[in-house]
Every structure is written in C-alpha cells, then in structure tokens.
Design a protein that fits this description.
about 425 residues, 14 strands, seven-stranded antiparallel sheet, five-stranded mixed sheet, 9 helices
Length: about 425
C-alpha cells in the first residue's frame, strides 16, 4: 500500500485560559450574546414563511439586530456569522436524519461558547515553556496553557496551520479549542494481533488475551466527603426557597462548587480513557467490541402506577455506574484512534456474550456463578475462568466467525432513521 497524504481539519487541541476578572466578564458577555442571537434567529425562523428562510435574509436580520440591540454589539461580527452558519447546519443535520430539530438555548443549561472563525485573528505566540498568548477579538491578549506544540510562527504553512478556535466554558473555567489543519501521512495497515473487548462496570475493560484495564475512584475520600457536604447544603438551602423564587447567590455558589468537583472527576476519567484507548490502538491491529444499546440499558425501572417496577434502587445504582463508565465514549475513542494507527474496529452482536462458554460454545444456565467467576455447567466441558475474560473471548470469536455488523462502528451509524421533514422546516 502506497503512502498518501490527507488534509484533516478538526479541533485538535484544547487548553485552559488564564483570564483576569474583567476578561472573564467580557467573554461571558460575548457568550450570552451568542446564545441570545441563536434564540432570536430561531424565533425569526419560526415566524418566517418557508420561501423567505434563506441565508441572505437571515444575515440581513442579524445585521439589523446588531444595530437595534446594543447588547449584541459585544459579539464580534465574525462570531455572529459563525452562529448563523451553525444554526443553518443544525437544520441540515436534522433534515439528513443525523440529529433532532434545533431549539431555543436555555440560559443555565447551555454550554457557553464563542467562535473565533479566522485563525489569523488569534496571532498566537509562545511566551515560555508553559504559557502562550492569543488575541481574542474584543477581549484582548490572553494567556493559555501551552501543553502541546501548535503550528505557529515558522512551524506554520499553508498545509499545517491554525484555522480558528472556539472558546468554551465549563465548571473549571474558560478553555480554548484550536482548530488545526494538518497534512498527515496515511498510516500503513497495522500488523498487530486481533483482540476482543468486554466493557463492564466492575472491570471497565477486559481483553480476550487476559489483560484488564482498571481504575480507582475518580475523587479522593476528602473530595467525596466535600461533595456530599455540598449536596446536603444545597438541598437544605433549596427547601427554604419559595416556589418561583430565584435562587440566592449562596445557593448558586454552592452549585458552582458541586459542578467543579464533578468536572474534576470527569477530567480524570477522560484522561484515563485517553491513555487506555491509545495503548490499545497502538498494540492491536483489529479491535472488536460489542454493539451495546446503552440508552436501553440505562432506562429507569420505576414502571407505572398500575405496574410499579422492582428493585428500583438497585437499577438506579447500576444505571449510574454504566453512565459513569461512559462506554460509548470509549468506543468512539477507539474508533478514531485505531484508524489513526492503521487498525480497524468492528462491532459484533452483544446478546449472550457473557452467558456463553468460550470453550464449548454452549449456553448452560447457572454457568455465570458470580460477577468474576464463570464455570461451564456443560457436562462435556467444565471450563472455568474469569467471566470478563470469557466474554471478551466470545466477542473475538463472533468476529472471526463473520458476525461483524456492517457498517462497522462509530459515527458511521446514524442516530435515527430518516423521516419526513418537521413542520417547521416545510
């Protein structure tokens, strides 16, 4: 296979911003203006006849709104154009069946973000080993953590450069995600071995060759105690709030502290997932996973009033554990990382992989004696071993027998089938 080159454009690097208090207020104002502009654009879309819902008319409406509403003027013109393009792309995704219809953005439940579409506006420079500086329109020169080499200065050219960025705010503060265009060499086919993977809760990742990847708690004992104390404090303050009354500053501060601890746990989980999936993609040429329907697995067990569910508390705990492991995110990482290293990822049907014996192939009731122990009850077999290892072996065996699903995995499978366009789009 001859080596070729492909140009890829993506948000390739995310770094933490070090903003002063005035800079935070300016960036927050821009993010709120972008959200308000989205809502105004959505309202305009709903009241306009179909024949007038064009990009030119929407652009004229945005320009007029920026003149009439002083608050929208804090948002740079290019960032406003990015909101317009994102909104129209959201409708296109809806019509193509890749996502639902766009809606209004709530003030407190929406991720605050601002686009910087032009890379030349950033004017990135490296201050020293740990910090760099970038220019944010209508904010000024800001510092960010330099944790990865970026194509700036003499290292930048037409094939390897920064084409833009996006400012994103989470519970840990403002971050900047750079969109990097690079010319990458197409990888050679990975010659590594095949491996089946079983995703679980007690053992997060078990491989068919017997290797396992585990992790501890995402928060330390002191951090978990602090989180519990903050949640109790928030519940106590909330019960004294009258219906319809706005939350106090103290309650909002408590919510911010809770969100900060949860974001810290998520950041540690992401770091573990990245390191683990990278190690797997570098070692194995063919990775096989189960085609899990995670949304069905985490459905509530409460039932109805006429037919209430059973073991609701235990099911709720299991749902939280499954969601905490983020199996879908692990598979997504494996999908693009195996492709980056020249490997492939395949999905096989999930039913009975944990109940079938990997030695004889029979499903005998009672073989799964516990979470960790599998003893085949087939009189002619009697194989015993770790239950997660047994499931991973079954996953790999299904692939070798030709039971891989097509299309293989990842984002190639659309989220829902194509349907008739919504009434708002016709």
């Amino acid at each position: 296979m001859s080596q070729g080159t492909t140009v890829k454009q993506q948000f390739g690097h995310r770094a933490r911003l070090a903003l002063s208090r005035p800079e935070v207020l300016k960036t927050d104002s821009q993010a709120h203006a972008a959200r308000t502009l989205w809502n105004l654009l959505h309202a305009w879309w709903r009241i306009m006849p179909k024949e007038k819902r064009t990009l030119a008319n929407a652009d004229a409406a945005i320009r007029q709104a920026r003149k009439d509403i002083d608050f929208l003027a804090v948002l740079p013109a290019q960032a406003a154009q990015a909101v317009l393009k994102t909104y129209f792309q959201a409708w296109k995704n809806c019509w193509d069946g890749r996502a639902g219809a766009p809606n209004f953005k709530d003030r407190f439940r929406t991720v605050m973000s601002v686009d910087v579409p032009q890379g030349r506006d950033l004017n990135i420079t490296r201050v020293h080993r740990r910090w760099g500086m970038a220019n944010i329109p209508k904010v000024g020169r800001v510092r960010f953590r330099w944790t990865k080499d970026l194509p700036v200065g003499k290292h930048a050219n037409t094939e390897n450069r920064i084409t833009g960025a996006r400012l994103i705010k989470d519970a840990l503060g403002w971050h900047i995600a750079f969109r990097v265009q690079t010319l990458e060499v197409e990888p050679e086919p990975h010659q590594g071995p095949e491996v089946g993977i079983d995703l679980g809760v007690t053992v997060p990742i078990a491989l068919s060759d017997g290797q396992t990847y585990e992790h501890g708690e995402w928060l330390t004992g002191k951090e978990k105690a602090k989180l519990l104390r903050l949640e109790q404090r928030a519940a106590q303050r909330k019960q004294y709030r009258k219906p319809g009354e706005r939350a106090s500053r103290r309650l909002h501060h408590t919510y911010d502290q809770i969100a900060g601890l949860r974001a810290k746990a998520k950041r540690r989980a992401l770091d573990w997932q990245h390191q683990t999936t990278t190690a797997i993609a570098r070692t194995y040429g063919t990775v096989v996973v189960e085609a899990l329907t995670i949304t069905n697995m985490v459905k509530s067990a409460k039932g109805t009033i006429e037919e209430p569910g059973k073991n609701v508390t235990r099911k709720s705990g299991l749902n939280r554990s499954i969601s905490g492991e983020a199996w879908g995110r692990t598979v997504t990482m494996l999908t693009y990382k195996t492709a980056r290293h020249g490997g492939t990822l395949h999905k096989v049907p999930a039913p009975n992989t944990s109940r079938r014996c990997s030695a004889c192939g029979f499903i005998t009731p009672g073989s799964r004696e516990s979470q960790a122990v599998f003893v085949c009850k087939n009189p002619d077999c009697g194989w015993s071993g770790n239950a997660d290892w047994n499931a991973a072996r079954n996953v790999l065996h299904l692939y070798r027998m030709g039971h891989a699903l097509i299309p293989a995995a990842g984002r190639a499978v659309v989220r829902r089938a194509k349907r008739v366009k919504p009434a708002a789009a016709r």
